[in-house]
Amino acid sequence: VKEHGRNSYQFFKQEMNDVIQMKLILEQELLNAIEQNEFCLYYQPQICGKEHKIIGLEALIRWQHPEKGLISPDFFIPIAEESGLIIPISQWVLHEAIKTIANFKEFGFSNITMAINISQQQFKSESFHDEIARTLKTFNIPGRFLELEITESQAMENAEQTIEILHGLKKLNVSIALDDFGTGYSSLAYLKRLPIDIVKVDRSFIQDIEHDSNDAEISSAAISLSHNLGLKVIAEGVETETQLAFLKSHNCDVMQGYFFSRPLPENELLAWMKSFAS
Ligand code: C2E
Ligand code: CA
Ligand code: CA
Ligand code: CA
């Protein structure tokens, strides 16, 4: 038993070393990616439920790795969070996304909002507010064009602090969206007190609307609850005509998902938008 114990300890230690080693390599690569400018933003359109027109975009980061190709944010954002590299990456996202609002204005799309995903470290950083103000000013973009997405679980981590931070951000005239709604156990009491504008119903509920009556119930309840609180509702992950019809019949304000378009790089999105509009 003793012998076995030591072997498994040795094994464990080796495995730990491998994990630590792996993390260090990834962090180094991420650092390199920042220096080499290997990140890019893709944009997914958001469509108005009533008028069938594009009203907004969500910016979604990708890592264009020179050998490994396009890497998903689900893979590298957690590593970036853990290592603190999320801060420079987030600053880049903010700058790039606001620049894109300005670009789209030039192309004649002058009334489109831009949503960006806010990491927890960025959200809690003291300079976040001023950074947004500065970047909006650089590109001469009014705050109302920018939407900040924070997840429900992020918001609930320290709800009192979240409320305070959000009140500060609201002074910039930006909108706040509660992302992944339905997955984070927010209490109704807090939902009412959070100075948010938009609720994004999580994809997991939309996905099974057609086949799971519970999910259909949850989605429609989330929509009416949000409307009763005076909030706008975005459904994410809309993939089928049936899902769209369901959401429309329940007065969902905005739809986003592969049914309309996958996230696209700026030039491809522009072409898509031109053909959608005409
Ligand atoms: P999220 O904010 O919930 O973004 C929605 C994810 O669902 C995106 O994945 C999007 O590509 C995907 N999606 C959109 N429509 C559909 C659909 O109809 N069907 C399916 N199956 N998926 C759909 P993506 O781009 O891989 O991003 C994953 C997550 O990474 C995001 O989840 C967000 O939490 C995070 N993320 C992305 N960009 C950023 C960023 O710039 N900063 C930070 N901090 N996080 C980011
Ligand atoms: Ca999001
Ligand atoms: Ca989401
Ligand atoms: Ca998500």
From TrEMBL:
Ranges for the EAL domain?
23-277
Protein name, as recorded = EAL domain-containing protein
Name the source organism: Thiomicrorhabdus lithotrophica
The organism that produces this protein has a lineage beginning with: Bacteria, Pseudomonadati, Pseudomonadota, Gammaproteobacteria, Thiotrichales
Q: Which residues of the full protein are shown?
A: 628 to 905 of 905
